[in-house]
Design brief:
By secondary structure, this protein is α+β, with helices and mostly antiparallel strands. It folds into 2 domains: 97 residues, Rossmann fold (3-Layer(aba) Sandwich); 50 residues, no CATH class. The chain contains 6 helices and 4 strands, in the order αααβαβββαα. The longest helix is centred in the middle third of the chain and has 15 residues.
């Protein structure tokens, strides 16, 4: 509770609802103390990311900034994170900073930066339709096993 609602501004039902949406309800129910359990090292990196999403859902945020939100999570948790973002934050402005390009291909717009400068801006379809676009080249390279830095 203290991690999601430190000022006790929300009802338990609201907290359980966001835990359900982020697929953390079963995990929290299994802990001694449930909503009042202590969290920290006992959570995986993926669970920590989902807890952050639950906090943003509880606050009904209008702008969500994600900085490498799926960089340190397993593929299964990445799907949960991405699904939660797409389903639960569709009414928000979501700024996603990512090196794992698969995490941004469903975005409305993509801004590609190189050495602090904007080099491209467009829809994924627009950028990918041009084989000479930097985003298209990076995605092709990533699909062929290259590491994008």
């Amino acid at each position: 509770r203290s991690n999601l609602d430190p000022f006790r501004a929300y009802k338990d039902e609201e907290i359980w609802a966001v835990l359900e949406k982020t697929r953390l309800k079963d995990r929290v129910t299994s802990e001694t103390g449930q909503l009042d359990c202590v969290v920290g090292d006992n959570l995986s990196m993926g669970e920590r990311q989902l807890l952050c999403l639950a906090r943003a859902l509880l606050k009904n945020t209008k702008i969500l900034v994600l900085d490498e939100a799926t960089a340190a999570v397993d593929p299964e948790t990445e799907v949960v994170v991405q699904t939660t973002i797409q389903q639960e934050f569709s009414h928000c402005t979501v700024l996603t900073i990512a090196h794992r390009l698969s995490t941004v291909t469903s975005s409305d717009r993509i801004l590609v930066m190189d050495r602090g400068q904007v080099v491209e801006l467009g829809t994924p379809a627009n950028l990918l339709s041009n084989p000479d676009s930097q985003f298209s080249r990076m995605l092709t390279a990533a699909q062929n096993g290259a590491v994008i830095l």
